[in-house]
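In the lab's daily routine, each protein ends up as an entry in a very long ledger. A line of letters takes care of the sequence, but it says nothing directly about the fold. The fold becomes a row of whole numbers, each drawn from a learned catalogue of backbone shapes. The protein below has been through that process, and both of its lines are reproduced in full:
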Amino acid sequence: MPAIETATHDHTDARHRLNIQAVAWKKRSRKISRLRLIFPGLIIGTVLLMIVWIVVQSVINSMNVYTTTGEDIRMTNPFYTDRSRNGERYEMRGLEAVRKGRTSQIVTLTAPRMEIRSENSRPSALEGAVGVYDDTKRRFTLNKDVTLNSGNGLSLRTQAADVDLQSAVITGNTPVEGRWQTGVVNAQAFRVEQNGRKVVFYGKPGQQVTGTLSGDEN
């Protein structure tokens, strides 16, 4: 009898150990199953967050958002529009605008482009490498590789041009080349009014206005 009791007791202990192992195995199985679901979810969530961050950054960079560095105020893709006292509408754009100080009225633009629109003619486009906008004087100056394409077919090339935003008159005091379908004019200064409908070229002492219009030497 004692031997039989010992065998029965050992058998009960073995079954108990097996039950414990089975429970532990089930726990590990459930844990592994949960991890198999969690890890792909984390990976997908991380990828989605990266995509959302890229989209948000792109939207922010495409908007006119000011950022400050010291006293400078910078704006990407600046856009400004208004009208002259004669009714011409003008628009100014650029890659970047920098205001030197929060109270400054001077704004520097990189790769500026300006369009002047009037009711009875096509728009004129003025471009350059650098632009300076003076809000106090209501003037816009473009420098370096300046081009003007007016609505009446005039194309000007010079190194500096000044725009009076109140009258929408464009002037320049550096050598200029003007081109039409009918000819070419070279001068030392110019003045463009009425969105290109009126253009005046000037010479300087010892230098005359030269060119060819409609095949005739001038």
